[in-house]
Design a protein that fits this description.
By secondary structure, this protein is mainly α. It is built from four helices and no strands. The longest helix is centred in the C-terminal third of the chain and has 20 residues.
Length: 71
């Protein structure tokens, strides 16, 4: 349910706040790749812009589509 998701996000954000910024950003990108809402909520909790993760996911999908089209 929504409360459980919120608790999970809060726990992850609480733990990641103790990490270096580059690790936080890498984790946000991974979370966004798995589930955009999840990644967005973690990013917001950490005060990180989600735009870079969105852009990288877009580029990765574009490359994958182009690769499958060409080969």
């Amino acid at each position: 349910n929504e409360q459980q998701r919120t608790n999970l996000i809060n726990n992850i954000v609480g733990d990641l706040k103790n990490c270096r910024r580059d690790i936080q950003e890498r984790q946000v990108k991974l979370f966004y790749k798995v589930d955009p809402e999840y990644g967005t909520r973690v990013a917001k909790g950490l005060g990180i812009s989600i735009e870079q993760a969105k852009f990288e996911e877009f580029i990765n999908k574009l490359i994958l589509n182009l690769t499958s089209f060409l080969f």
